[in-house]
Amino acid sequence: MPRLFRAGRRAALLLSACATPAAAQPQSSAASVTLSELSVVGAAATDAPSGETRGSLSVPSVDRQRAALAGTVGSVAFVDAATLQDRYANTLRDVLKDVPGVYVQERYGQELRLSVRGSGIARAFHLRGIELLQDGIPLNLADGSGDFYQVDPLALRSVEVYKGGNALTFGATTLGGAVNVVTPTAYTALAPNILRVDGGSFGTIREQAQMSRIDGPLDVLVNATLTNSDGFRAHEAQATKNFNVNIGYRIAPDIETRFYLGTYLTDQKLPGTLTLGQSLTTPTLANPAAITGNQSRKVETERIANRTSFLLDVGKLDVDTWAIHKSLYHPIFQAIDQDGWTYGISPHWAGTFDLGGFRDDVVLGLRAFAGQNSALQFVNVRGQRGAQTLNSLQSASSVEAYGENRFWFLPDVALMTGAKAFSSNRTFSDKGGLPGNPRPRFADVTYEGLNPKVGLLWQPRPDIQVFGDVVRSRDVPDFSDLVQQNLLSTTFVPLRAQRAWTYEAGARGRFGRLAFDVTLYRSDLRDELINFATNPGLNIPAATFNTPRSVHQGVEAAVTLDLVRDLAGTGDGVSLTQIWTHNDFRFVGDPVFGNNRIAGIPADVLRTVLTYRHPSGFHVAPSLDWVPQGAFADHANTLRVPGYALLGVEAGIDFADGVALFVDARNLTNARYVSDIAVVANAAATAGGAGALAAFYPGSGRSVFGGIRAAF
């Protein structure tokens, strides 16, 4: 068996060397594909990343992260955060815009719509249907809800996207899968010291500092980012302060513990939604209700997590623990005042066996997490608390067990099988005793299930993989789904869990000058959780219902072609990257909406990037973002927003002494377009007609950002 382990490591290193990424746009999925067999055992401890003398047991090198991801039987993507250093990366939109199949659009500030394969398709706020992880440890709250405010693009070393059931390796089996943001350690940091200042349009200024040190068995990294911006629209100003600390200690040669500490402060004014006409003619306006109510979102989050890793005779055991405290003050239609904790523990073991001369890779894990959230509401008096209208407690808990097995029954073919069993509870307690709400109310619901997965991975060449799989997913409602509100009352709605079977097939790799990543998929859903805004202009959280049947299907494709090499000298080159995401999401025989398209996400999203890079460090990349036909604004399909095309260009130069300059110009033609929609049920039935419907977030106008970075 030791011979097998050594052979696996040699194969992984050889394949990583053979599967070189494309010369341009390395942040795109196609351009950053590195294919190899998965070699789990001892990788972090025995193979130090380039430039390291020892490496980390708990966090593998970036090359090891990429190689392990490439062993996934299913559609995945890898983003090396080194590619973000020479452009303005303020949100997850900037990080993930080159990943096919990921639909991410900005609403305002750091608020986004993030959807993979239609997850949370119609939700007009925050996150649903995707597990957001930091260093493999959940960032979502106990009920599965989440947002993006504590993900700092300048505090990342890599990002792993596991689409759909391919996130089973973390225990995630939601429709959208998981996005794992990996922070740097002192071993993987781009430099021991980094200082950066950037800014530009809309009064934006951002400062970042990072320092890391290694002292014997101890490694420490500290990162801080401060951002202030007035925003493109009126009443959109934001101020954020993000602090991250990563401390690792090698207790023994085969034991390492690592602590992750973070504090995230966000003060974001909310501009609200506009009518379609306003979005296309006067997009800088704010909704009048947003101004009179001084609508905003103030979040204070503290997070502590630990991973302790044990290198065993067979495999490696990671034990993760975490606790998240979140305080939210959110005056919208009412003043929402919440404070809560989430905490959990998750042991995870991975190893490789020799079964009769065949290689067998195994992953086993448990997760148990819970949390309580004090959810209060008050009349919104110009952003201040008025009379109290709700005094409730939200409690959630989950217990999960999962496993995944890859059996290489041929040298180049693996059979993957896996499953996850879970039990999740949601308890809502309204204490009552308030005017208009005198009686206490209590609701308790438990969701249970088993999600299996089976697939095949074929690697006909060292740098090409073909895969296909079938997986079952379940999305358990969070409290934003279960606790529904209007201007008069709060009601607990006992929704069913969303279930789906997803079938996918694809290929990824490199052939000569061409790198590619293409996946076709179809999801047959039952009881899909569908949202629609009851009054988007007032920022009332959307109502949610279960539609009996629906279908999500599409194409996720990224292709990079090296057009020209040695154009103006040895080592330079021009490459063309094309990214295409096709979305076909429909109701199937719905009692109200028939076979209509599910509103909120356009059918086709395309991005084209032409990149020139010179070995001196100079690079320039013009780009075109094109949505040929906009999304429907309502499930009745009576109103559709226009399509749009956005031109941009990124350029910069990296000097040999570690200093880099960059400029990032966006929407050069100052196009007027709708970036996102607060979906409604029927726009034509809205009071005043579709023209009076305030459900649209206008996209930002022409902007230019620039910066300077020093790494030493």
Automatic annotation (TrEMBL):
GO cellular component: cell outer membrane
InterPro entries: Beta-barrel_TonB, Beta-barrel_TonB_sf, Plug_dom, Plug_dom_sf, TonB-dep_rcpt-like
Topological relation to the membrane, as annotated: Multi-pass membrane protein
Tree of life domain: Bacteria
Domain TonB-dependent receptor-like beta-barrel, residue spans: 227-668
Keyword Phosphoprotein: no
Keyword tags: Cell outer membrane, Ion transport, Iron, Iron transport, Membrane, Receptor, Signal, TonB box, Transmembrane, Transmembrane beta strand, Transport
Main location (coarse class): membrane
Chain segments annotated as transmembrane: none
Protein name per UniProt: TonB-dependent receptor
